[in-house]
């Protein structure tokens, strides 16, 4: 799919933020633990969610939309213990069924998710945790298999506060007798959302949001109704869109404290930021200033906004440095931004960005979801028309992005949609 962006329009107005992709994906998997009916509200209708639902149906769950963003999941039937490769290979987050199915039926087999464009992404920390809980874990023929041996709660120290490992171990431990303590746990808001959901289903999880999470295993779970938190990464992307286009945008339906690390950087760049409890307004008043960014696990600056930030800093008056500390291969967008006239030097985990006067529209290719978002932002500021190839990657994580940008005054459309109306064809 191709997106066409006619640049040079200042964005103006309000945009309502959708539910968080990285919470919805784990909550959909975790709902299998209920063994009954779960209703999830504020679920974004993005392609990654639709793929996760294909997996739900393939292993014996039922899923139906009962509202614009409300999902009804029924897990009362018998389940397959093995995830089908044909679906799982499309989505790394399919690996979150490891913890969910372990808690539900004490045995699970999932395809070993390969790496993706942004890094090798091993699962050694997940498996170390399962081993310490007493699961027999094997990896063969491209599959990971975990079978309950004498399972019991344990103390698990994570060498790196991995989001996925923390989530999988939390889910497995929720159904493992005894007390499990995860140390150096991930502290992302999505972890807190998962803990809230597990407790709503009868779990006993405490300390989520800190680096020490305590889980007391239970044997019975139940259905629940739960609402997904707003997407802080989608919100950050629209705030950067205000800055790069020279306009003024208010993001609504956000949890402002989740965006503190982002707000701080936007202020460093010289943008006006007005933060309320559930809305944030960014206004550009002058030149963009250079700044240095280091990506870190939460509450550090999110790696998922690193590429969008690179697009913004490409137009700053001076030199900025970005250090990517979470993924080893997340600077691929630099080459595409350079095609638009940006000046960026990449060496290992460091990118040096020398700001330029302007960017020029041309043909570029999205290499992953957030790189695609960065090219969309660059296209908003660039002179002329930018054509993004492989733009379907953007639809994996942004709900109705063409419609939402169109409502803010952007000229964005899907190629082949000749109506010319900005935002006419929804992606
Ligand atoms: C989650 O991925 C998010 N995905 C990612 O969002 C996000 O970038 C990432 O967390 C970091 O915030 C979902 O929630 C579905 P990690 P995850 O385990 O869980 C290494 C997006 O754009 N590691 O915290 O896979 C790993 O290789 C996506 O929305 C190990 O070495 O991330 C990486 O370098 C992209 N061994 C680092 O830790 C392990 O066992 C962070 O990975 C696990 C991870």
UniProtKB/TrEMBL annotation:
Domain called Enolpyruvate transferase: residue spans: 6-405
GO MF, any single term: UDP-N-acetylglucosamine 1-carboxyvinyltransferase activity
Active site residues according to the UniProt entry: 116 (proton donor)
Binding-site positions, phosphoenolpyruvate: 21-22
Location within or outside the cell: Cytoplasm
Main subcellular localisation: cytoplasm
EC number: 2.5.1.7
Pathway(s) this gene product operates in, as recorded in its UniProt entry: Cell wall biogenesis; peptidoglycan biosynthesis
2-(S-cysteinyl)pyruvic acid O-phosphothioketal PTM positions: 116
Binding site for UDP-N-acetyl-alpha-D-glucosamine: 92, 121-125, 304, 326
Keywords noted in UniProt: Cell cycle, Cell division, Cell shape, Cell wall biogenesis/degradation, Cytoplasm, Peptidoglycan synthesis, Pyruvate, Transferase
Catalyzed chemical reaction(s): phosphoenolpyruvate + UDP-N-acetyl-alpha-D-glucosamine = UDP-N-acetyl-3-O-(1-carboxyvinyl)-alpha-D-glucosamine + phosphate
Record's GO cellular component terms: cytoplasm
GO biological process terms on file: cell division; cell wall organization; peptidoglycan biosynthetic process; regulation of cell shape; UDP-N-acetylgalactosamine biosynthetic process
Broadest EC class assigned to this enzyme: transferase
Gene3D superfamilies referenced in this protein's UniProt entry, alphabetically: Enolpyruvate transferase domain
Keyword Protein transport part of the UniProt annotation: no
Purpose of the protein: Cell wall formation. Adds enolpyruvyl to UDP-N-acetylglucosamine.
PANTHER family given in the database record: UDP-N-ACETYLGLUCOSAMINE 1-CARBOXYVINYLTRANSFERASE (PTHR43783:SF1)
Protein name (record): UDP-N-acetylglucosamine 1-carboxyvinyltransferase
Organism name: Thermacetogenium phaeum (strain ATCC BAA-254 / DSM 26808 / PB)
Lineage: Bacteria, Bacillati, Bacillota, Clostridia, Thermoanaerobacterales
Gene (UniProt): murA2
